[in-house]
Amino acid sequence: MSDRFSTHTQLFDLSGKRALVTGGTSGIGVMMARGLLQAGAEVVISSRKADGCRRAQEELSRFGEVTAIPADLSRHDECLRLAEEVTADGEPLHILVNNAGATWGAPLEEFPDSAWDRALDLNLKAPFWLVQALLPTLRAAGTADDPARVINVGSIDGLRVPLLPTYSYSSSKAALHHLTRVLARELGPQHITVNAVAPGPFPSKMMAATLDQFGEQITATTPLRRVGRDDDMAGVAVFLASRAGSYVTGATIPVDGGIFTCASN
């Protein structure tokens, strides 16, 4: 009977696994990359700016084997190039974390067309393009007992009506949550799980202005009375990427201290 059970270490061990984390040089991306590295995975990070990639690679290298590939994922050709570089050495890819994203806030009357293009290209199209391009290596890496993993980073603003006028951002994240379910149904039989995480407020460049202006209010109205910490995002990434999360697919998991899940209206 003991053969049916994994040890605690085995449940969360990612030794021998290889992951790509887009937007992996700052904020939530670097939190998730750090968690995967500490669990034993080899991690490739990507971001638009080469200097940011170098700095993040240096910062993360103390946790494990990490490489960095700059790429502008708002462009289809750059998504294809990134996929080609990640797979060029023939090494399998077991985990794809689609985290790269962009936001935009402006009053309704002033909201520009470019804000829709930017959000949809990076927040919705890029995850789809990368799944397309990396599908052969993900298929090859997954098995019935240990599927390959796709983890999409959405937002609680894709689950609720946002507090700020971020029309294209919240719409693109809601669409990403639904795309997650669509892909999960199609790719499950191919031994690939697809899940999303929906972060609430975390310290990051994207959230800096909001936390500066509304940080105390957010903390006071969050059921757990704090904003997110690095370990909160690292932990959910390791769960979804490891044996512990191998029977979870099509889920959107709020990591928000209860802001959405405990909303009273």
TrEMBL record:
An example Gene Ontology molecular-function term: oxidoreductase activity
InterPro entries linked: NAD(P)-bd_dom_sf, Sc_DH/Rdtase_CS, SDR_fam, Sec_Metab_Biosynth_SDR
Protein origin, superkingdom: Bacteria
Record keywords, A-Z: NADP, Oxidoreductase
Protein family membership: Belongs to the short-chain dehydrogenases/reductases (SDR) family.
Name of the protein in question: 3-oxoacyl-ACP reductase
Organism the protein comes from: Mycolicibacterium phlei DSM 43239 = CCUG 21000
Lineage of origin: Bacteria, Bacillati, Actinomycetota, Actinomycetes, Mycobacteriales
